[in-house]
Amino acid sequence: MSETANHTFLDDAQGIAFGTFCCAIGLQVLTFLGLITGQTAGLAVVISYLSGWSFGAVFFVVNLPFYWLAWKRLGPVFTAKSLLSVTILSVLTEILPMGFAIERLNPALGALIFGALTGMGLLALFRHGGSLGGIGVVALMVQDRTAFRAGHVQLLFDLCLFSAAAFIFPLSVIVWSLLGAVVLNLVIAINHRRDRYVAT
Question: So where does this one cross the membrane (predicted)?
Fold first, then answer.
């Protein structure tokens, strides 16, 4: 049974709005601390830091190749919801700083806040048949076809990304960033299970 089988249009709209908003706040915390994250968002953050380009624009472009894969493997509805989610998040990350500023935040606490908020946001998107593209698409495909959970797929990718980032960023940045990524992926691994949580 599909998790989105009994969701109405308004249910999905609320889920996507909530999910992207949580992720946008999480990314605001992340960038304030100068930390990085995993998946394609992490790749976009690294490119943004190194190039000075806008995260929103880089994130949108990085995800483009994955839409073809999503369309072929997961269908047009999933692809459309993912494209919409990525677009909304890209816009939110540009406008959120206009009305929300962080003055002081401990890196350890910030990593936990980022992981929890972004994990909840991604979970909401997954439950409503969408994603933030990229590795999330691949992770959902693997989980749907094997017993390997989506959160574990994402965590493996994140470990590879952080290993490469260790040559660019200070060790403290890597440690706190990894903490946030672990929290995020544990939220997904524990809560996004079709054998346990099914929409009714």
Answer: 16-36, 42-70, 82-102, 108-126, 174-191
* Cβ–Cβ under 8 Å, residues 100 and 21: no
Please report the sign of the dihedral spanned by the C-alpha atoms of residue 161, residue 165, residue 166, residue 170: negative
Q: For residue 29, how many C-alpha atoms fall within 13 Å in the half-sphere facing its CB? A: 24
Q: In the structure encoding, which two tokens stand for residue 175, read together?
A: 């440690």
Plot region of 24 (φ>0 → left; ψ -120 to 50 → alpha; else → beta): alpha
Calculate mean pLDDT across residues 19-30: 94
Amino acid at 199: A
Who's near 169: CB < 8 A, 6+ residues apart?
36, 177
pTM here is 0.78
Predicted local distance difference test score (pLDDT) of residue 67: 79
